[in-house]
Give the backbone structure.
Amino acid sequence: MIGLVHYLTVGTLLFVIGLYGLLTKRNIVAVLMCIELMLNAVNINLIAFSRFITPELATGQVFSLFTITVAACEVTVGLALVFRVYHDRDTVLADRLNWLRW
Amino acid sequence: MNITLLTSEILVVLLGILIMLFDVLLPRQESRRSLGMMAVWGTLGILLYTFTLAGPPATVYKGLYVLDTFAVFFKQLFLVSTVLALLFSLDYVQDWSRNQGEFYALLLFAVAGMMVMASANDLLTIFVGLELMTVVFYILVGFHLEQVKSSEAGMKYLILGSASSAVLLYGMSWIYGATGSVVLTEIAGKASASPAVLLGVALMLAGIAFKLAIAPFHLWAPDIYEGAPTPITAMLAMGSKAAGFAILLRIFIVALPALQDYWLIAVSAMAVISMVGGTVVAMRQTNIKRMIGYSSIAQAGYMLAGLMAADVPGVQGMLFYAMLYIFANVGAFAVIVSVSQQTGTDEIEDFAGLAQKSPFLAVVMTIALLSMAGIPPMAGFVGKFYIFLAVIEQGHLWLALIGFIMSMVSVYYYLLVVKTMYMKEPKDSRPLLVGSSIGVAAVASVLMTLFLGIYPAPLADFAKAAAQVLW
């Protein structure tokens, strides 16, 4: 029987994989994908909690709809900025972005 | 459901849409300054309207959205900072070859997001308001098309900002899972010190601390402050920071008072690291925007120290400080915009001899920096006084002592700038011109900084009324 714990485990794994990728990937597009992974981990959590903790209310499911929409906006802006950076610098590698003293 | 309570937000969004519309209708070669003036007067009008909002708390749609004195205080703070930031962006934006109208419209959308955050009473609304603000700021930080630094700063802000949003959301999902609710007042009744809630609280605190640029989550701030267009740097330092404090106070004081023992430890650690770290690193900076960036980390630390008191006087001090910090920042950034526009850089050494080139700008900068350092009779002194007094009354003498020492140390690097302006010889003796709109913003900031320093009572009473709503 698959229960709440299983979903939460998958969510945690996804979140940690996303976080790991965020810290290690060099390509900005891959970094954006890792952020998506983290946000999808949130969605899994929200929907699982919604189903098991408050099955009569759909709070978590509504919340996850908002998360999906906002994530789409973030990625849109992110890809636009990737274009700009590529246009200015001919690279999408994060460690080449060193004009500012990061 | 009383939709009229949302009037001020709706008006701000409408103003933004109207400006976009006029931007399309205006002939291409026409100056966009009129759109900027429209944004200034419109925001000023909405600011005046918010003075009619005072009254008992009222809620929209099952308590998801609340309009109380606390919300009104922050809305007015955001609108004041927008009017002043718009005033000194008029000249700055004028030099751009395109996208001038969109700049004003986007800035207004960001403000709408902040105003939603000030009123939000559940995690979902907080999240939507926060994202409305930050997504717009990602665009605005990378908006300076002629500068490569700007797009790089925008990219960095987007990556770190959305990662922190994901962390914040993950924390929210755990709080929801543990309490079965996303409404702050309902969470307050159900939150207990279970592992799930504590995990959620820790993740949310990290996410919000990132938005506030509080150490150890501050690494983005100096880079983005340096790379962003200067008016946006100012809005990040004033509006974005204050909005972060608004949700921090709502979440932690309204929803999680039961866990105070746990989060106070984290808050005190972050306040101390911010005050010490921000001050020490700011001393070594050569770029004025970076220096303000690091000093804003220290300033966030002082404000966070007010939360340590966790009572009405402490929050009152925080709100008072957030408001006066706006006027100090406006003065400093108005001068930075003027100088960098005419010399082309914003290194501190280019401020040499500013007192000879433009005595007015030098005086404005000096007053702004002394207010940030907390020297009487500027407003900054009164703000720090309120915060540290509240902290001491709650028995955290050590924290006030660290804050006091650090603000004494900070006088050093603020005065370095003043010394460069007054003691050093300028490279060229061309007098600097001050644009009329920048002049208005600078004069307003100086007058308010001195007024609040000498006669703080009206604002302090307002801040107290706002703080009392949370209990």
About this structure: Chain B touches chain A through 40 residues (CB under 8 Å).
